[in-house]
Structures are given as C-alpha cells and as structure tokens.
Amino acid sequence: AAVAFELDADFDVEYHDALPSTNDRARELAADGASDVAVIADRQTGGRGRRGREWSSPSGGVWMSLVLRPDVPPARVPLLTLAAAVAVTDAAREAGVDAAIKWPNDVIVPDAGDDSGRGGAKLCGVLTEMEGEASRVSWVVVGIGANVDVDPDELAGDATSVRAEVGDVPRRAFVQRVLERFDELRSDPAGIVDAWRERAATLGERVRVETTDGDIEGDAVDVTEYGALVVDTEDGERVVHAGDCQHLRTT
Ligand code: BTN
C-alpha cells in the first residue's frame, strides 16, 4: 500500500514497501498528469538499470523516482540527470562518504572497490526516462538508485553503500537532503554543470568510452553546457552524449 507524506522540499512523497520498479510507478503517475512527486520504495522486485540491465534493489536502499514536468526541450533533460548525481553526491558527502561523480551519472567512491584500478565502487546510478515532442518534453522521470542502508554483498558488480563506508545513516534524512539539493539545482539550471564539474572524478582522466558508434579513447577534458563529455583524442576533440555511452572506463 502507498503511504503519502510531505517533506520539507517541493515534492510529495509516495512511499511503498515494495514495488516492481519506482520508475514504472512514476511513469504511470506522469502519464496521469502528476508533477513533483517522489515515488520511493524500500525494495524493488524488478529494478531497472541503464541499457536494459537489472538493478539489485534489496530492502534498505533509496530507490526513488522523481516525476517532473520541466518546460524544456529534450536536449536539456540530461542536465536533470546530472543534477540528481550532484544531489546524491552532496547528501553522501554530508554523511561522511568520500563520493564523486563518474560521467555521465554514476556516483562512485573512488578509493573503494576491488583494487583493479578501474575507478572505484558504485554508490548510485540514475535512470532518466522521458516522453514528449522534439520542442518540449511532456514529462521526465529521474530514477535514483542509491545504495544507502544495504550490504554491498547483496548488490551486483563492484558496488559500495553508505552503510559500508560510514555505518548507519538515517534514510529519511538522506532522502530529504537529496530532494532539497535537487530542488536548489533545478531552480538554477545554469549552475548545474559547474556543480557537476566540481564533483567529477572523470575529468582529467584518460578514458575509453564505448559508444553505439565504436570506442573513443583520450583525455576527458570537459563537459558541455548540456552535460556531454568532451574527449581529447588523437584525431581531435570528440563530444560524447550520455545517451550514446554504453560504458566508460578510465585507463
Ligand atoms: C544505472 O544503471 O546505473 C541506473 C540505475 C537506476 C536505478 C534506479 S532505482 C529507482 C529507479 N527504479 C528503477 O527501476 N530504476 C531506478
């Protein structure tokens, strides 16, 4: 059953003990015309990651999807994904976790993980979905999967959690901070890329990006005003859009 309550941010919260996927529930609400709702579940039975991957969602995580109706063209939607990554990074840092952002939208702990040198363990991923016209979106769902009060052994891949890094953290306070920061960032979209840049683990690194069009290798030098990654390659600068990135590794 859903429980609705209000937080001190401009979102109404719809809380569930379990859902297949908060993104799916958020999409339903969005299609019904809702806006500024945060759908949260304690666990998901069919959590979805980027590129059709599964997302492990045991009890104790922050599995949350934001229903938004921004008055913007689709090209600006990646900024909302970056804003979510910034908001989670800040909430994690305030909880004492040494978090940083891996382009395009992963929050990682650079010094955690399996010592392979592949650049840290994952703390959070973001899955953004939208519907609308070329000139203007109708709705956007920003799905945030933050490993908060969970055991990394229950998660797939090279993952960590707030609990594993610093011990217990009150989940409700964490959610509140993420929503407050997200609110601040979306009200000042011009500041999002700068905030992202300041927290980026990717910039200045040598990277290989697997794209739908082949691999791009070089130095990650910047992000554009819409959040695309600029890679300095042997053949000059290439701009990679988040939607075209299948995988990024630092080399
Ligand atoms: C990724 O692949 O890195 C993105 C993971 C996104 C997971 C979150 S959890 C809340 C929301 N509901 C889902 O089914 N997925 C997103």
CATH class of the largest domain: Alpha Beta
Strand order of the largest sheet: 1-2-3-4-8-7-6-5
Structural class: alpha+beta
What is the domain total for the residues? 2
Query: Approximately how much beta-strand content do the residues carry?
Result: 35-45%
Number of alpha- plus pi-helical segments: 5
Order of helices and strands: EEHEEHEEEEHHHEEEEE
Helix content: 10-25%
Low-confidence stretches: none
What's the alpha carbon Rg, rounded to whole Å?
A: 17 Å
The largest β sheet comes out as: 8 strands, mixed
Bound molecules: biotin
> What is the CATH superfamily label of the largest domain?
Bira Bifunctional Protein, Domain 2
Distance between the termini: 47 Å
Mind telling me which CATH architecture of the largest domain this is?
A: 2-Layer Sandwich
The name of the CATH topology of the largest domain is: BirA Bifunctional Protein, domain 2
Mean pLDDT: 92
Shape: globular
Structure, explained:
By secondary structure, the protein is of the alpha+beta class. It folds into two domains: 3-198, 2-Layer Sandwich (BirA Bifunctional Protein, domain 2), CATH 3.30.930.10; 206-250, SH3 type barrels (Roll), CATH 2.30.30. The protein has five helices and 13 strands. The termini are far apart.
Ordered list of secondary-structure elements with their pairings:
Layout: E1 3-6, E2 12-19, H1 22-31, E3 37-44, E4 62-68, H2 77-94, E5 100-102, E6 106-109, E7 121-132, E8 137-146, H3 162-166, H4 171-186, H5 192-198, E9 206-211, E10 214-223, E11 229-233, E12 236-240, E13 245-250
Parallel strand pairs: 2-3
Antiparallel strand pairs: 1-2, 3-4, 4-8, 5-6, 6-7, 7-8, 9-10, 9-13, 10-11, 11-12
Helix pairs in contact: 2-4, 2-5
The structure holds biotin.
